[in-house]
Design brief:
Layout (H helix, E strand, L loop, with lengths): L12 H35 L8 H36 L3 H5 L5 H26 L8 H36 L16 H23 L32 E2 L6 E5 L5 E3 L1 H5 L4 E8 L5 E10 H8 L7 E6 L4 E5 H5 L4 E6 L2 E2 L9 E3 L12 E7 L7 H4 L18 E2 L2
Parallel strand pairs: 2-11
Antiparallel strand pairs: 1-12, 2-3, 4-5, 5-8, 6-7, 6-11, 8-9, 8-10
Length: 412
C-alpha cells in the first residue's frame, strides 16, 4: 500500500503513505545504528590495541555487534526501497510525487555516498563473518573505511531528517494526521500495512541476527559458519594474515631482537626445553567465535629477560613467518598469561594453529595473537599497528598474498 498508489486514493495519499513508511523505517534504523556504532567503537579500540575492559563486557558486545548488523539488513532494504520508490516516481514524472516537490539538494548529493557506503559496509561485514576472504581483498580496511564514511554521512542525514521522521512516525503510530496536514485530513491509509512491514522486517532481522551471532542463546546459531568444539585444537583458525603456513622446523628459529643486550636465537628443541607456564582464558575473534583453552608455553617476560631487553622499551613487535605482525605494549608483554604457546590443553600445536609456536595474550582480540611466531622485536616509541595501518590499503592487517614470504614458512 505504502509503495504504490491505489486508484481510489487522492493524488497525494500515496506520497504521504510512502513518506510515513520511510519515517517509520528511519526511526527504527536510528536506534539500531546508534547501538551498532557504540559496539563498533568498542571493537575498533580493541583492534587498535587500546586497553579496554574485557571478559563479560566483551562477551556481550561482540555478539551484539553481529546480531544488530544482521538485524539491520531487512530494515535497510525497506528504507532503500521506500526512498528509492519515491525518488523514482519523482524522476519518472508521476504527478503526485512531482507536486510534492523535488528532493532537497543536500540529500540528493549525499544519497549516493550513503547508499554506497551502507551496501559496502554490510557486504564487507558479511564477508568477514563468513570466513571466506574471497577475491583476495583487504576486507578489514574496506569495512573500516566504509564504516567511517557511512557514519559521517549518516550524521548529516539524521540532522536533516530526524525531526520530520519522528513527527511522521509518531503520527502514523497514533493514527492521526501529521501537523503539516490540514486539520480535516485523514491519516494516510495503509498504517496497518506499514506497521506489519516494519514489524516483519524487525522479526526477520532478529532471526538472522540470532542465527548469525548465537546470541542471546548459543543453540540459536543456525547461520554461524564457525563453531568451537570440545577437542583441544577444535576451534577456528583465522589464516587471512598472509595465508596458512607449514613451517619447516629445521629452518625455523625464534629470534628476540631490537633493544636487547643479548639477542636470542632458539631452535624448536631449545624453546621446548625452557620452563613453561599454563594459563586458562578465552581467545575471542572479532569474526564472532570464542574458545576457552589452557595454554602452555614460555612466558614472554622470560624471553625478554633472557635477551636483556632494555628497561626503556615500550612495545614488542611480534612477527609471523607469514610476514604478518602486531605491536603489543610493554604491560601486556610482561603481564601474567602472555605466552609463546607450544601446547593447547596439553596437545602440541599443529600447522593450522601456529606450529611451532604462537602468541597468546589474555584480553586482546584474536587477530593480534599471532600464529607461526618467529621473531620478537623489542622497540621503543609508538607502535605502528594502530588506526593508520588498519586504513592503509597498501599494508592492511589482513592482506592475503600481499605480505612478504619467509624462508621457514611455506603455504600448503
Amino acid at each position: 500500500m505504502s509503495l504504490t498508489d491505489h486508484h481510489s486514493q487522492s493524488p497525494t495519499e500515496g506520497v504521504a503513505g510512502n513518506t510515513r513508511l520511510t519515517s517509520l523505517a528511519g526511526v527504527v534504523l536510528l536506534a539500531l545504528i546508534t547501538l551498532q556504532v557504540v559496539s563498533a567503537l568498542f571493537f575498533a579500540l580493541l583492534t587498535y590495541n587500546v586497553s579496554l575492559p574485557v571478559g563479560p563486557l566483551y562477551d556481550v558486545v561482540r555478539p551484539v555487534h553481529f546480531f544488530v548488523g544482521f538485524m539491520l539488513m531487512p530494515l535497510i532494504a525497506i528504507k532503500l526501497a521506500s526512498t528509492g520508490y519515491r525518488f523514482g516516481r519523482y524522476y519518472t514524472r508521476k504527478q503526485a510525487y512531482r507536486d510534492a516537490g523535488a528532493p532537497p539538494p543536500v540529500p540528493r548529493l549525499i544519497a549516493p555516498v550513503l547508499i554506497g557506503s551502507a551496501i559496502i559496509l554490510v557486504a564487507s561485514g558479511v564477508e568477514m563473518w563468513s570466513y571466506q576472504n574471497q577475491f583476495g581483498l583487504p576486507w578489514t580496511a574496506i569495512h573500516n573505511v566504509a564504516a567511517f564514511t557511512f557514519v559521517s554521512v549518516v550524521i548529516i542525514h539524521i540532522a536533516l531528517h530526524v525531526r520530520d521522521a519522528h513527527r511522521d512516525a509518531a503520527a502514523d503510530l497514533a493514527g492521526v494526521p501529521a501537523p503539516s496536514q490540514s486539520a480535516a485530513a485523514a491519516a494516510p491509509a495503509g498504517a496497518i500495512t506499514r506497521r506489519a512491514l516494519i514489524g516483519g522486517g524487525i522479526a526477520f532481522g532478529a532471526v538472522l541476527g540470532a542465527g548469525a551471532s548465537s546470541w542471546p542463546f548459543a543453540p540459536l546459531g543456525w547461520l554461524e559458519p564457525l563453531k568451537t568444539g570440545s577437542d583441544a585444537l577444535d576451534f577456528p583458525s583465522m589464516n587471512f594474515e598472509g595465508g596458512p603456513q607449514i613451517v619447516d622446523a629445521a629452518k625455523w628459529r625464534l629470534r628476540v631482537t631490537g633493544l636487547v643486550s643479548r639477542p636470542v636465537e632458539l631452535s624448536e628443541a631449545q624453546l621446548l626445553a625452557m620452563p613453561t607456564e599454563e594459563h586458562t582464558y578465552a581467545i575471542n575473534c572479532v569474526d564472532g567465535w570464542t574458545a576457552t583453552r589452557t595454554w602452555r608455553g614460555v612466558p614472554i617476560a622470560a624471553l625478554l629477560i633472557m635477551a636483556g631487553a632494555s628497561p626503556e622499551f615500550t612495545h614488542v613487535l611480534v612477527r609471523s613467518t607469514s610476514g604478518y605482525h602486531w605491536d603489543h605494549e610493554r604491560a601486556r608483554m610482561l603481564g601474567a598469561g602472555a605466552l609463546l604457546v607450544t601446547h593447547v590443553n596439553g596437545v602440541r600445536l599443529n600447522d593450522t594453529h601456529g606450529y611451532p609456536a604462537r602468541l597468546m595474550v589474555p584480553g586482546v582480540v584474536g587477530e593480534s595473537n599471532i600464529k607461526w611466531v618467529d621473531e620478537l622485536q623489542v622497540k621503543d616509541g609508538t607502535g605502528d599497528n594502530y588506526l593508520g595501518q588498519h586504513l592503509d590499503f597498501k599494508n592492511p592487517t589482513i592482506t592475503g598474498g600481499l605480505l612478504p614470504r619467509d624462508p621457514a614458512g611455506r603455504r600448503p
